[in-house]
Write a structure and sequence with these properties.
Blueprint (H helix, E strand, L loop, with lengths): L17 H6 L11 E4 L6 E3 H16 L17 E4 L4 E4 L10
Antiparallel strand pairs: 1-2, 3-4
Length: 102
């Protein structure tokens, strides 16, 4: 037997991911440009806006065709590209970052 709720269907969830939550919130434009990373071995400091720029540059390099100097990676059907290193992981979804290959 199939039962249907008497209440209306739930609204659809907005398309958001952890990248939006961490890096694309409107109030972040009001934040001061604070130091977000410090390399203990070299003392190099990376500020928040520089970190964001590097993430976006990485996403651009991934989707740019090889003929233009990029890697030509194509995420299809909502796939997400993950990058894992020894001390951090970054998930770059070119679709969610607002980049397209068109």
């Amino acid at each position: 037997m199939y039962l249907k709720s008497r209440y209306p269907d739930l609204p659809t969830k907005p398309t958001r991911n952890i990248h939006h939550l961490l890096f694309n919130r409107p109030e972040q434009s009001l934040w001061p440009d604070f130091t977000s990373h410090i390399d203990l071995a070299t003392g190099q400091q990376i500020r928040f806006r520089e970190f964001l720029r590097r993430i976006r540059d990485g996403a651009t390099a991934l989707v740019t065709p090889p003929s233009e100097g990029g890697l030509g990676v194509e995420a299809k059907d909502g796939e997400i590209i993950g990058i894992l290193s020894h001390n951090s992981s970054v998930s770059l979804s070119t679709r969610h970052l607002g980049f397209s290959t068109a």
